Automatic annotation (TrEMBL):
One GO molecular-function entry: thiaminase activity
Lineage: Bacteria, Pseudomonadati, Pseudomonadota, Alphaproteobacteria, Hyphomicrobiales
Name of the protein in its database record: Aminopyrimidine aminohydrolase
Keyword terms: Hydrolase, Thiamine biosynthesis
Reaction catalysed by this enzyme: 4-amino-5-aminomethyl-2-methylpyrimidine + H2O = 4-amino-5-hydroxymethyl-2-methylpyrimidine + NH4(+); thiamine + H2O = 5-(2-hydroxyethyl)-4-methylthiazole + 4-amino-5-hydroxymethyl-2-methylpyrimidine + H(+)
Record-stated family: Belongs to the TenA family.
InterPro entries noted in UniProt: Haem_Oase-like_multi-hlx, Thiaminase-2/PQQC, Thiaminase_II, Thiamine_Salvage_TenA
Amino acid sequence: MSDVFERLKSAAQEDWDAYVNHMFVFRMGIGALPQAAFQRYLVQDYLFLIQFARANALAIYKSRTLADMRRAKAALSAILDVELNLHIRLSERWGLSSGDLEQAREEPATTAYTRFVLDCGASGDLLDLHTALAPCVIGYGEIGARLADSLGPAHLAEHPYREWIEEYAGPAYQEVAAAARLHLNALAERALTERRFGELAGLFGEACRLEADFWQMSLTI
């Protein structure tokens, strides 16, 4: 079977491009993203990750094999022990504690995307859930790697958003993204039919649109 993630991207190319090439990403890449927009993003993404941790906990419950359970546990650990800590470190520079982040109000774009993913998991199976998660989990790896490559080591060293870019371009997160892609393929081998592919492409496209709305929220609040 061909790479399912690439097939989903092709089926939802317009939505994918609007997400990964959003003005938020472009401005971050050239170092022109307003600090206030990045701060808003960090706060909302912290709340976002809490809900994504719940989605991976749901994946453990929905799993039918120990291998799937261990995969979901690893993804849950990556959020709770790595990604959330990055947000705390960055936010502390502006005087925001982890308590401040947890008590912040979820913006509608945050609620819309995270509850969409949780609903995909609650009403569907693991393939539905991981299709909805893929634009975020794998997409952030692609965005981080692209930004790092375009900047190069010299420019990245002085970049205002260096730590964020390095986190998602770095080997640890790239391994997470690669594992997510392989797991999506494994799930598809078990459960994907051509009739079902259209439904999954719809979920993937909607997740990309919600990701783009999330970037836009950070620019316009």
